[in-house]
Specification:
The protein has about 170 residues and is of the alpha+beta class. About 25% of the residues lie in helices and about 30% in strands. It has helices at about 25-40, 105-125, 140-145, 165; strands at about 10, 15, 45-50, 60-70, 85-95, 130-135, 150-155, 155-165. Strands 1, 2, 3, 4, 5, 6, 7 and 8 form an eight-stranded mixed sheet that branches. It is globular, with a radius of gyration of 16 Å. The chain starts with 7 loop residues before the first strand and ends with a helix. The relative contact order is 0.16. The model has no long low-confidence stretch (mean pLDDT about 90).
Length: about 170
Amino acid sequence: MAFLQTLERLDKSRHDTKALDCGKPSMNQFLSRFAAKHADLGLSSTWVLLEDVQAQKLPVAAYYTLAAATLHKASLPTTQSLPTYPIPVVLLERLAIDRKHQGQGLGEKILISALRHSVKLAEQGLPAFGLLLDVLDTEALAFYQRFDFFEPLTDDPMRLFVGMERLRQV
């Protein structure tokens, strides 16, 4: 199955958000019910990879959602000298691949796109010391652990972090 070459910002008038089934009901529900609402409220932005098919609404093969967040210095896995106030980061809030596209390397591709997008946001002026990732479950944790640049936060192994300097090398 072919995919459109670029990721697009979610547009519910063009994108079929209800058909995606990644195997995780909360991830499916977020895309179909909340992603566009959260974007309208300025809470997050969702980007979709579309199947290259002729349809009135384009099916979503994968998506990721980015938002802004802060972390306390004590929870960061770094020895770098940082201020005591909350440290700004990009939050990779969600990342999902439709079941029919899983196991084909698409997860890695969309993750790399999300990471590069985060770097671009930081370079365009969004203050971000790094990227935070809240891991949904142990299956997702196994996926992210394949990449050697994520480190668990000191207070929660299901929250992963990578510094912006390291992301610039991805």
